From TrEMBL, chain A:
EC number, as in UniProt: 6.1.1.14
SUPFAM superfamilies, sorted: Class II aaRS and biotin synthetases
Gene from which the chain derives: glyQ
One Pfam family, short name: tRNA-synt_2e
Keywords annotated in UniProt: Aminoacyl-tRNA synthetase, ATP-binding, Cytoplasm, Ligase, Nucleotide-binding, Protein biosynthesis
GO MF entries: ligase activity
Spans through the membrane: none
Main subcellular location of this protein, as a coarse class: cytoplasm
Quaternary structure and interacting proteins, as annotated: Tetramer of two alpha and two beta subunits.
UniProt lineage: Bacteria, Bacillati, Bacillota, Bacilli, Bacillales
Catalytic activity field: tRNA(Gly) + glycine + ATP = glycyl-tRNA(Gly) + AMP + diphosphate
Name this polypeptide is given: Glycine--tRNA ligase alpha subunit
Amino acid sequence: MNIQNMILTLQKYWSNQNCILMQAYDVEKGAGTMSPMTLLRSLGPEPWNVAYVEPSRRPDDGRYGENPNRLYQHHQFQVIMKPSPDNIQELYLDSLKALGINPLEHDIRFVEDNWENPTLGAAGLGWEVWLDGMEITQFTYFQQIGGLEANPVAVELTYGIERLASYIQNKENVFELEWNNGVTVHDIFYQPEFEHSKYTFEESNTEMLFDLFTMYEKEAKATMEKGLVFPAYDYVLKCSHTFNLLDAKGVISVTERTGYISRIRNLARKIAKAYVAERERLGFPMLKKEEK
Amino acid sequence: MAKNVLFEIGLEELPARFIDDAEKQLYEKTAKWLTDLRISSDNIKTYSTPRRLAVLVQNMEEFQESVEEEVKGPSESIAKDSEGNWTKAAIGFTKSQGKTVDDIYFKEVNGISYIYVKKHIEGQKTFELLPEFKNIITSIQFGKNMRWSTQTMRYARPIRWLVALYGEEVVPFEVATVKTGNKTFGHRFLGNEITIQEPQQYESLLREEYVIVDSNEREQMILDQIKNMEEKENVMIPIDKDLLNEVRNLVEYPTVFVGSFEEEYLKLPSEVLITSMKEHQRYFPVMSNDNELLAKFIGVRNGDNQSISTVVKGNEKVLRARLSDAEFFYEEDQKQSIDFYLEKLQRVVFQEKLGTYSDKVNRVVSLTKEICNELHLDEITMNKAIRVAEISKFDLMTNMVDEFTELQGIIGEKYATIFGEDEEIAKAIREHYLPKQANGDLPETQIGSIVSIADKLDTIVGCILIGLVPTGSQDPYGLRRQATGILRILSDKKWNISLESLLEIAKSTYKNTEIEIHDKAEVTHTLKEFFQHRASYLLKENNVESDVIQAVTDNGIGVYVFTEKKARVLSEKRNDPNFKSIEEALVRVLNLAGKTENMNIDTKLFETESEKVLFETYQNIVTDYNHALNNFDADGALLQLSHLSNPIHDFFDNNMVMADDDNVRNNRLALVNHIANMIKNYAELTLIEWKQHQ
């Protein structure tokens, strides 16, 4: 199965489970969790079921397109269900079957893994799902987001698309994966991988990035004070990506690093609170909809 | 009629590390519950897998035991009036217990007679009491709990089903909106839903559905299959107990398989291979019969051997990806030099206030020099030790340690050898992290021991200088473990260097730094107390009594190896009747000491024979005593002190120390003070609670 069909299959499957199919969010981010469709919508009492593909940028993992396993940008298939359904494990395993993975022919395990993202003040408990020893999905029950307790609890499934594909297509090198008939990951992503790596590690304008970080942070604060949660959050994402670029270039010392992380975390916390307050002011519209 | 009882908690996959303890709690709590309830039964057996915790109680009685209970009433004097008739108080008491005055009998408590009645408490039906099992389920403690969905309950993982059977009857209750029933589930993929008709069927029904509910049996299955594999492949598979334990708790139905990887990866350091296999993938490494690591591994699948070759292939692929990463790091790392990595250390912070790793290394280097000087080591050894200190942390900057943090030091040794460092220096880099646990292996080399002490001292003193003193369970930098490590090395190497002088050296390395020290006396005091606690902990481990520990550390820890010996000797003498007279003599001196500052002994002022004898004995032993002290001969030194015993007793028996004549008195006190100082150089014997029998 090529990657395109994998994505279509997962979309169809989760759509049938009443998930809203969303598109990737249009601001750079390191993980699907950081999309406001997960991070903000997982907060508060309103039900929320969503699935989307998220291109995730990890500047530090850039390898000029030379490493068979690491990418500057990979793809995650993200599912959020709030409140977490009682049969979520079965739903997940059925999604693997939909991808043609017959559990009887494999060894599928749920191995304890407690996920934490200090930058976003988020933490959860769950597992990494192993398929014949390979981690293919992060399975997390959110306990805290933006420093707020998650109640009800949302469950997050994050499929590593390239990982899963390398298994399904039996390829050792991520660049050999087939995206569509005859079109490989190499065809689509080799050049951007190389160029982004070169930019990140060699060419990026450090001074400008530091300036941008400060500007984005300032704008996020100012916007939030005006009660504009979503635009403020976009600037937090920009801060986070700018920080990742600086960090990958090795221009942030360890001490400064903690400082930057806590600056982003403080913003994320404030936004999480502001989001819940704003939803409450609106009378938690999605909650009412469900009651009808 | 007695019936079998079964409870099963069905869960989403529990973390392997919680399972054994949860099963143990389940057993203990059930046993206590049944005792408290006065329900007798034959046997309690517990089970656990990643998806269930269960308990089977055989032949549980249908009723609780009935009991006769004594109820105490008022005293006889209140219960009867002066004419011997029952008072209102007595009648009221019997009524309240549903009895009459005819049921009254008397019993004495502490010499006073009270009225009593006997009450019969009828045992209730077991079935009606069983829903209380709910409290056992909710009271099991796990290392970490979570919430799910809209539940308020916290548990290790979500509860998905509950079985509660009394014979064939379902015991009704619910936990977190899950209702009890008689249905359970077999293996996630190989098994089906099962209806349990009778508790006794539990093990066998689940076995049919590919679940081995007894964790010991799963362990045995794994061991048996590994043994077969060893014979078939003619290899050795060392069993790591912790890994075995984890693996048996990751599967409900274990099938062992063997996988392999490319021989070329064997050129990687074996620790890298073993960590990749064990820690990252939970595989058992495979050795040849000559104890050489082979390019094979043993995995355990959760299931049967259906399509096992697919499973093997998948696992091989994962391991190959990890090893190819490691190989890449290994090759990349070797393209650089030690100096390249040392340069990088300048940019990495060790601790915010204590500076970079580079700063730390510089302090450790100067500490190492000082320690070598104190130990009077030759120049060659000293230069080697300094080299170790200089490059002790370079490997932290390599890709390999970045990826395999647990291999710090081990990678340092490998790479240092590759980069052409002396073999002993390379080994010492690894050893400077030792001991890794309170009772872990100690460094073997002298230079490794020195740098190990220097590194740990620097961390401890630095942290305490900036106020990071461990409290309670909070010890993020592992200062306690490191302090214990220092003392153990000092003892093992028998080094003639006092802990106090080590601390002074360590403090002096911080003198010219920017670290602000608010209260120097306070720091010295905290350090002293901190190390005294560690020494005390170690000595207690060696069965030395607290009072003896106090006595030998009262004056500071000093040369630890000697302190340890003195503690052992005194711990014996404390209970030795033959030592009683000696101990009493020495303590007599100590109790009188310090009554004057005068230290001048004038032999012309001696009035009695016993004074002269004591002084002569003192003079006679001084050389041998000091010689014994310098050789850390705890027995010998005490033997010398014991020569003073009889002269001391004679001295006190025949002289008034507090003589009327000032000169005579001061002269006698001076003699006492000299001897007291001599004893105190050994230990503060007055602190010992002597236990010799008469």
